[in-house]
Amino acid sequence: MQPLSSIGHSQHSLESFIILLQQHNVTALADVRSIPYNRRLPQFNFETFAFTLNSSPRRVQGS
What we know:
Shape: globular
Structural class: alpha+beta
Strand order of the largest sheet: 1-2
Low-confidence stretches: none
Protein name: DUF488 domain-containing protein
Helix content: 25-40%
Pfam family, one: DUF488
Order of helices and strands: HEHE
Mean pLDDT: 83
Radius of gyration: 11 Å
Number of helices: 2
């Protein structure tokens, strides 16, 4: 069984966030935010976030 972890994007750039995922061997990510948008950090809006991460070897699922 694979471990389940929790991560927040904080104020990281999208590139820094991806590096964190890689460092911890994360291969799947579930976005469980009730409102998956961020005015101050638009790189973490669900569509942008999912497109970028799905272009890499990991999967993203929205809530």
